[in-house]
Amino acid sequence: MLYAAAIAADEPSRIGFIVSKGVGNAVVRNLVKRRLREAGAASLREYGTGFAIVVRALPASASASWDQLLSDYNAALAATMTRLASRPARAVGNGSAGTTQEGTLRA
Q: Would you give the distance in Å from CA 55 to the centre of its chain?
């Protein structure tokens, strides 16, 4: 799962990872985290500023190959960025404090 929110356009993008114990033992979780960090680093070249991204690893990521994990990450990122781009622009106040996943306003 991948969540993203627009932040101030001049702020550097941030990426966070959630890898729970449901993914596997510490060795497996760290392997998944390292792979996701590498995928995230590649995406920062394209989205270097203006986004806060959170990646939640699902249990299936433990058995996924690097190519499959990268493919899934890139597809989720592209879909999320497309959804963000289709939303009307709004003024960003204090960071992303007023947004939830995919940049939707909190109720």
A: 4
What global pTM score does this model have?
Answer: 0.75
Radius of gyration of the chain (CA): 14
Partnered with residue 12 across adjacent β-strands are: 49
CA separation for the pair 3, 1 (Å, rounded): 7
User: Per the domain annotation, does 102 fall within a domain?
Assistant: no
Rounded Cα gap, residues 23 and 39, in angstroms: 18
Q: What is the pLDDT of residue 39?
A: 94
The answer as to whether 101 is a domain residue is no
Q: How many H-runs (helices) and E-runs (strands) does the chain carry?
A: 2, 3
Which pLDDT does position 64 carry in this prediction?
95
Give backbone dihedrals phi and psi of 82, rounded to 5 degrees, phi first.
-65, -45
Residue at token pair 């979780």: 29
Instruction: Count structural domains, the chain.
Output: 1
Asked if residue 24 lies in contact with residue 63, where contact means CB atoms within 8 angstroms, the answer is: no
φ, ψ of residue 14 to 5 degrees: the values are -125, 145
